[in-house]
Design brief:
The complex is a heterodimer.
Chain A lengths: L2 H12 L1 H12 L5 H4 L28 H9 L8 H13 L3 H6 L1 H10 L17 H16 L10 H5 L3 H13 L1 H6 L2 H19 L3 H5 L2 H7 L7 E5 L9 H5 L20 H5 L5 E5 L5 H18 L1
Antiparallel strand pairs in A: 1-2
Helix pairs in contact in A: 4-5, 4-8, 7-12, 8-14, 10-12
Chain B lengths: L2 H24 L2 H9 L4 H4 L3
Classes of the chains: A mainly alpha, B mainly alpha.
Chain lengths: ~300, ~50
């Protein structure tokens, strides 16, 4: 495994917090709108951002992919969104759940909460809950908005309306602080969603990224592409000493030596930093790099034989 | 999954993703996204 890959991986995982901060800022560029209490209304919102970021956030630079999908399938014109599905497939193959680990503002928010010094609880025994997010994706994002429609063929964005805490955090709270009209309109639905947000906040302090692990439909979609993503984890079996430090360091409950491209791996790089022999690193490219590694090994063997 | 098969799957998925995205834009989905994203989403903020 090249030293170059190992060095880049170490640097990326070490500065991940800064990369997350930068990604959150780029996703929410229009900061003055927080004071104005209005939304950015430019053409940039035709394009989706990669992470979970509500388009009703005053500063949002683009559209939320999950919200946009439901907007299209819930409209009277369409019952499926090729635009958003194609966009998500492209991102899934190009980056996979690297987006969750490095680019998602709500993932970063939960990580910051988890830094609050309290007792931390393991999610290893709650592994079956990780399948819940696929049900959320299928039922609340795909099926209900497309098929539970009113007389004119329009469906509600069920995930955004009943489950997503990001809309309250980024949209309702800042907008209601700046705009008395919006503040006056908040009712029972807001109370329900605010309760979900408070629950996610409390759980995030105790557990690592509970929303990403159990509920996020965007993470579920990207997880489906983790095995075929160009962005992969690579373990050099020749360097690995099977000490198990990587598996113990992983807060997503993945053993990178057994399943380097597990659906739950968000490419956070904690295993890379924990490895004492630099056996784990990121890899980017087509295939899984085995052919190149084999070719390099064969070349090395041939060279050694010639020298002898 | 072998290395060749994986690379082939990646290429096919990239092409399928690009094709779906272009088809979606062509049939006017991007305009629907923009019209929703520039207005306050009442469901998202909890107004209803």
């Amino acid at each position: 495994m090249g030293k170059k890959f190992s060095g880049v991986s170490q640097t990326m995982s070490r500065f991940r917090g800064w990369i997350q901060a930068g990604a959150t800022l780029l996703t929410n560029l229009h900061l003055p709108n927080f004071l104005k209490g209005g939304l950015y209304q430019g053409a940039g919102k035709t394009v989706c951002v990669p992470g979970l970021n509500c388009y009703s956030c005053p500063a949002a630079s683009g559209a939320c992919p999950i919200g946009a999908f439901q907007a299209v399938v819930g409209s009277s014109k369409f019952s499926f969104s090729y635009y958003i599905t194609g966009f998500l497939i492209l991102l899934g193959v190009l980056l996979g759940r690297f987006i969750c680990g490095f680019l998602c503002p709500f993932g970063w928010f939960q990580e910051l909460l988890h830094k609050i010094p309290t007792k931390k609880l393991s999610t290893k025994r709650l592994k079956p809950l990780t399948y819940l997010k696929y049900a959320v994706l299928l039922v609340m994002v795909f099926l209900l908005p497309a098929f539970l429609v009113n007389d004119v063929g329009m469906g509600d964005p069920f995930f955004c309306k009943y489950l997503c805490p990001q809309g309250v955090l980024e949209g309702a709270i800042p907008l209601s602080l700046a705009n008395s009209g919006i503040r006056a309109a908040l009712g029972k639905l807001f109370t329900w969603k605010f309760s979900i947000l408070l629950s996610v906040i409390a759980l995030s302090v105790l557990f690592y990224r509970p929303f990403c692990k159990w509920l996020c439909p965007l993470g579920a979609f990207y997880a489906l592409f983790n095995r075929v993503s160009l962005f992969q984890m690579k373990v050099d079996k020749n360097k690995c000493v099977s000490c198990g430090k990587c598996a113990r360091a992983c807060k997503m409950d993945v053993d990178v030596t057994k399943t380097p491209n597990h659906t739950e791996c968000i490419r956070c790089g904690m295993c890379i930093r924990a490895c004492p022999t630099n056996a784990v690193c990121f890899r980017y490219g087509f295939g899984d790099g085995k052919d190149k590694a084999k070719a390099a090994e064969t070349l090395q063997t041939n060279n050694n034989n010639k020298e002898e | 999954m072998s290395c060749g098969k994986k690379a082939a799957a990646q290429i096919v998925l990239l092409m399928a993703g690009a094709a779906m995205l272009c088809f979606g834009v062509w049939r006017g989905e991007a305009a629907t996204v923009l019209s929703k994203a520039i207005k306050l989403c009442l469901e998202c903020v909890g107004i209803g």
